[in-house]
Amino acid sequence: MGRKPRIQFEGGVYHIVQRGNNKEYIFKNDDVKKQLLNIIVESKEIMRFEIYGFVIMDNHYHIVIRSHEVPISQIMHRIDLKFSKYYNCTYNKSGHVFQDRYKGILVKDDKYLLSLIRYVHQNPVKAKMCKKVSDYYWSSDSYYRKNIQDKIVDIDFVLCMFSENRKNALVEYSKFMDSTLLEESAEFEEVSIIGEVKPTSIDIPIIKTERKTLDKILYEVVGDDRIFDEIKRGSRKRELTHYKMLYIEKAIQSNYKMKEIGLNIGISQVAVHKLNNLQ
């Protein structure tokens, strides 16, 4: 029987699980775990996706990822291929490093995202490698608790689900992650689509899913009626470039496509891409 085709679409969020071949402990030391993160960062810069959560265990890893223009299959092919080459070269091995097919599970709705991230962060607790989510170093949990927005984890989208006030969001995030409730693998790993099985969690917070409009994002960036109007009219004045770059950055963080971002201020998708790469 042939394999079921993967469900993929632009802008989709996926729970990725990739295991070592024959459940081997391929992430047996910190250097190997660090190399995987380096490859993810490098791939992110080239393929323009977002990471909302991750954990690297000793024999497998989880990533919560949102793809954009590049399909998830191409993203994972690049990450796993580059890591496999590194691993085989470093340890003088050959052959498969990972199981032949990663598990990629579509998240049906963003309202399931927080429980999914908690499930990912709870992996070391369930494996009895630590007592609390915050005790484990090789996960995205510390990026959220310390309010670190860097090249690996995109924390803004998730924290804004708790509150637009960052201080309050950090408090609510920690409270949610520190719950003694353990998420079930049946809901986040043993399904084809996350959201078809209703989560058993009883403390899922109310999630704010409305996005700011592109015009609101632009005005928050410029804070001036004259500059706002000039950008909206498509002015190419050099003094406006900085504002356009900030607007594009904020709009991408709010999960708008480059085509939408460009249409809103009268520039092409290619121009949006070029301005974004200047940052």
UniProtKB/TrEMBL annotation:
Top-level taxonomic group: Bacteria
All copies of domain Transposase IS200-like, residue ranges: 9-123
Protein name stated in the entry: REP element-mobilizing transposase RayT
InterPro entries reported for this sequence: Transposase_17, Transposase_17_sf
PANTHER family tied to this protein: TRANSPOSASE IS200-LIKE DOMAIN-CONTAINING PROTEIN (PTHR34322:SF2), TRANSPOSASE, Y1_TNP DOMAIN-CONTAINING (PTHR34322)
NCBIfam families: REP_Tyr_transpos
Pfam families: Y1_Tnp
